[in-house]
Design brief:
The protein has 11 helices and 12 strands. It has helices spanning about 1-60, 80-85, 95-100, 100-115, 155-190, 200-230, 245-255, 255-260, 280-295, 340-345, 355-365, and strands spanning about 65-70, 75, 120-125, 130-140, 145-155, 240, 265, 275, 300-310, 315-320, 370-375, 380-385. A 5-stranded antiparallel sheet has the order 2-1-5-4-3, sandwiched between helices. It has a 5-stranded mixed sheet with strand order 7-9-10-12-11. The protein has a two-stranded antiparallel sheet with strand order 6-8. A hairpin with a 4-residue loop joins strand 1 and strand 2 (about 75). Helix 5 packs antiparallel against helix 6 (about 200-230). The structure holds adenosine-5'-diphosphate. Adenosine-5'-diphosphate (ADP) binds next to helix 9 and helix 11.
Amino acid sequence: MWAFLFILALTALAGLHFWWRGKFRAQAEQLAAEIDSFKRRQQQTSMDAQAQQKVLFDSMLEGLLLLDRNRKIYLANRTFKNLFGVKAELRGKTVVEALRLHELDELLQRAETEKQVLDYEIKLPGLTDRWLQVNAASITNAAGEREGTILVFHDLTRLKQLERQREEFVANVSHELRTPLSLIKGYVETLLDGAKDNPEVAERFLKTIERNANRLDLLIQDLLTISALESGRMKLDLAPVNLHALADRVLTFLHGKAENKNTTLVNALPELVVNGDVNRLDQVLANLVDNAIKYGRAEGTVTVGGKKLDDGALEIFVRDDGPGIPPEALDRVFERFYRVDKARSRDQGGTGLGLAIVKHIVQAHDGEVRCESELGKGTTFYFMLPAGLN
Ligand code: ADP
């Protein structure tokens, strides 16, 4: 009897044991599967975060460089690679190995010891000047230990170019203003010193003063025009303009000047109509015809002509049969204050801004300007107005 009960108890215990084991294994397997899926989800999330981080860094306008605590590159974004023209993988390299820029190594040393963000400018070696602003800062963890360094690069080249242009412009303007002003002052002083008592001399001097005052006036007008055009403050007043009639008005206005040089003025423009700003287009034609008379030969011919191109755009030209412009100067004549012959331009009362104004006005109409010239034969200035304006 006892033996039977003992065997029964044993059997019950064994059954219980196997029931528990089975249940536990199923639970363990389920747990393992859950851990596995959690790990995979975490891996996926981390991969997604890395991909997002890469997209974010690569979309930055600034170059970004992250270095580890051993000054090895951990991350370089797309802008950084473009700025320095590198295609190779940079991860694991030092800055000097990657860029051969020892200045940056010095900056890194300083960034590691100083607490604030450092600001530095570097000029990149190369054919054309390239300037970069670099901000460098040390990265520390919550415990205050240094983890690495972050460098942010901004391209300053365009800004530097604009600054140089502005400085040149201010220097040119001061020079252009000073020349007639010192002439005026000189003649006034001579008049006051006694020349005023000789009516003949006084009249000659006063005429020179008047000429230089007019030159100052023209220069200031041109400066105001160019400043308004360049700042985009000048709004075009668009309306249909008959180009033949416009050329007639301009040639009539400059008739006296042409007569002084025995220049023949010809209006060969067909009756083309453009949707433009009549006052501004008048200024374009007047500047070009005025130049053609000024720099053309005495007893020469100045022709205004044009046609409709195949794509519907209008091409207008002003042609003279003067001495022409040397090939190396052709691209530069549209620059502010550029003159092929400085003395000649000033003699003729030129401000050096006429063609720059022409270019700006034509560009404001979405058009283009160009110039063709053959030494000894003549010069033709073209401006094109797009089809959309017809
Ligand atoms: P400027 O006030 O000196 O005339 P512009 O900007 O109108 O200034 O012209 C720039 C320079 O281009 C002139 O100084 C002159 O040397 C040259 N130029 C312009 N038009 C002609 C032309 N038709 N023939 C020869 N040279 C010209």
